[in-house]
Specification:
Elements: H1 17-34, H2 55-70
Helix pairs in contact: 1-2
């Protein structure tokens, strides 16, 4: 469940690296909620592997990590 597919399973190979990261975070949240969870508040740790990591991708990872931790309430 990476960032190449949207929440409906449609393949999106045209997305930039940053957009794939954003989509992967959305997909994880969707999966957690679909399984009866509350979303990112239940995530203990994130391992992220990148082929290339430019400044834009780093900014997205930081932004989404902060947003996820704020969800903890």
């Amino acid at each position: 469940m990476g960032g190449f597919h949207d929440s409906k399973g449609n393949e999106r190979p045209d997305l930039t690296d940053a957009a794939q990261i954003d989509q992967a975070f959305k997909n994880i949240d969707t999966a957690l909620r679909h399984a009866g969870g509350t979303g990112w508040s239940q995530v203990y740790r994130v391992n992220s592997y990148h082929i290339s990591l430019d400044d834009e991708a780093i900014e997205v990872m930081v932004r989404l990590s902060v947003e996820g931790s704020e969800d903890e309430g």
